[in-house]
Amino acid sequence: MPPTRVSVAESLRRTVLTASPAGPHQRPTRPADRRHTRRVIVRLDDVRDDLRRAYDGAVDRRDAAVKAPWKRGARRAFRDRLGAEGHTRLLEVGAGTGQDSLYFQEQGLDVVAVDLSPSMVARCRDKGLDARVMDIARPDLPPASFDAVYAMNCLLHVPNADLPAVLAAIRDLLRPGGLFYFGQYGGFGEEGVADKDNHDPPRFFAWRTAEQLRRYARDGFDIVDYHPVPVSDGGVFHSLTLRRQTDGLVPRARLNATLKAKGSS
C-alpha cells in the first residue's frame, strides 16, 4: 500500500503509539500485528507547532528535573573529547532550559543554544546563555561555524522523512572534522504521537533502532563511537558521537533538491 501524506490530526488517529504508563519517556511497546497498519508519512511541518506548544508549557517542570547520572556522564565524556581535540565552539540543538549549555559554558566553551520554544530560550537567556529561537531544519547560522554540535534527546522529535535534511543542516554548521553528539531514546522503528505523554499537547516521537541511526549517520558523518545505555524502565538510549566527514559531502542545497525530486516522482 503506498504511503499517504496526512495532517497531524489524522496522524494522531492513525499512528498513536502504545506506551508504558510507568515510563517517563513513553517508549512504545512492540506492535503485535503490523500487517494491516497503513503507512503514514508525517513531516516536521505537521508536528512543529504542537512541539513548540508542548515545550512552552513545560519550562518550570523541566528546569526543576534532576538530570540522570548517565546523562551527566554523556555530556562529560563529550566535553573531555572536545578538550582533547582542542575544540572550543559548541552549538546545542534543542537546548531546552539550558542545563547542558550552561555546563559546557562553565567548562570554558563558547556556546550557542538554540531551541524551537521561545519560552525555553527565554529561560536559557535568564542563565546568561547566548540563546536563540531556531528551527534546526532552517538554521540561521553561518556554515562551518562550530567545532561541535550537541543534541541530547531532541532529534527523536524529527520525523524520519525529514531526518536526513536535518542531519545535513547540522553537518553544514560543523567545520570539517567537527564532532556531533547525537543521543536519543530507542525503540522498534515506530513513529507517532505518544498516547500517554506527560506534555500537552502530546509530543511526536520517532523511536529509532540502532541500525536506523547508524544508517542515517553514515550519510556525511563518520561514527566515532556508538554504545547503547540501558535506562531504568527497561528501555535503551542510543549514544552516538559522530565526526563530519572532510570530503565526499553532499551540499545541503543539492540534498534538498534531490529529496524534492524524489517526493514529486
Jot down its keywords.
7-stranded mixed beta sheet, alpha/beta, disordered N terminus, 9 helices, two-stranded parallel ribbon, 265 residues, single chain, 11 strands, 35% helix, globular, Rossmann fold
Widest β-sheet, arrangement of strands: 5-4-3-6-7-11-10
Shape type = globular
CATH level-1 class: Alpha Beta
Q: Give the number of helices.
A: 9
Indicate the low-confidence ranges by residue numbers.
1-25, 31-38, 249-255
Can you write the helix and strand succession as a string?
EHEHHHEHEHEEHEEEHEEH
Q: Rg, please? A: 18 Å
Q: How would you characterize the largest beta sheet? A: 7 strands, mixed
Q: What is the percent of helical residues?
A: 25-40%
What is the number of beta strands? 11
- Coarse structural class: alpha/beta
CATH architecture: 3-Layer(aba) Sandwich
The CATH superfamily bears the name Vaccinia Virus protein VP39
When the domains are counted, the total is: 1
Q: Please give the alpha-carbon distance between the first and last residues.
A: 16 Å
Plain-language structure description:
The chain is α/β, with parallel strands linked by helices and 265 residues long. It has one domain: Vaccinia Virus protein VP39 (Rossmann fold, 3-Layer(aba) Sandwich), CATH 3.40.50.150. Helices cover 35% and strands 25% of the residues. The chain has nine helices and eleven strands. It has helices at 8-14, 44-56, 59-64, 69-85, 99-106, 118-126, 163-173, 210-217, 252-264, and strands at residues 4-5, 40-41, 89-93, 110-115, 130-133, 146-152, 174-185, 190-193, 204-207, 221-230, 236-244. The strands form three sheets. The chain has a seven-stranded mixed beta sheet with strand order 5-4-3-6-7-11-10, sandwiched between helices. α7 runs antiparallel to α9. The chain starts with a strand and ends with a helix.
